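Section: Multi-chain targets

For targets with more than one molecule, the full set of components is provided together so that the structure can be written out for the assembly as a whole rather than chain by chain. Components appear in the order listed by the source. The example entry contains two components.
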Amino acid sequence: MIESEFAQAAIKLVLLALVSLLIPASYRVIVGKTLPDRLQAVDLITTLLIGIIVMLALVEGTQVFVDMAIALAAFAFVGTISIARYISEGRGF
Amino acid sequence: MLLELLGVIALFFGLFFCGVGVLGVIRMPDALTRLHASGKVATLGLFGLLVGAALLMPAASLRILALGLFVLLTSPVATHAIAASVYRRQEILEELFEMRAEQVAMTITDVSGILSRSRIQDIIEAQQRSHRPSEGEPSAKDT
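Its structure, encoded as tokens over all components, is:
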């Protein structure tokens, strides 16, 4: 847990800004014309979610959230690679 | 206190690049330029946020830096795979538009969805099969 008032307020501000950045990123998922556009926007949303989870770990002061972020990063990598291969070659693995 | 100040500066550095990347993803005209913008979010933006978090919470700094190293290794690979799929898809579309006009009109409904390579091979083989018999029959009669 972070004691100082200043750092706590800054962390909450950054968390709020990151959550509000999810809305324009999901605009590209809904509107995006082609399949690679949507895949790339989903990848961007996952990156933002990793940042949000780490900010949540700072707010709560617990380390468990960082492990969750590591697992999310690993699964997002596998998913993005397999869908990109599916678009370019017609099969996943 | 100095550590917290440095951490907050790193957090806002990362937040700036996240905002710029999302702005680029919704405003850029092309798929490849949008990829260029979203690559910055994964490397500069998220890594800035993680460095700030490691400075603010020194107890978990080892785990956070391990996560940062993992993201720094994997996200360019994922971006490269998406870029390769965009390029391959454009190649597939160019192959399509070199074919006859009515077949393009027939398959244009598929263009908005997924176009797998095997499906295009099937279309090309079907086209060749429809052309071959007129050329192949005389030679078959000669033998």
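Chain A has one domain: 5-89.
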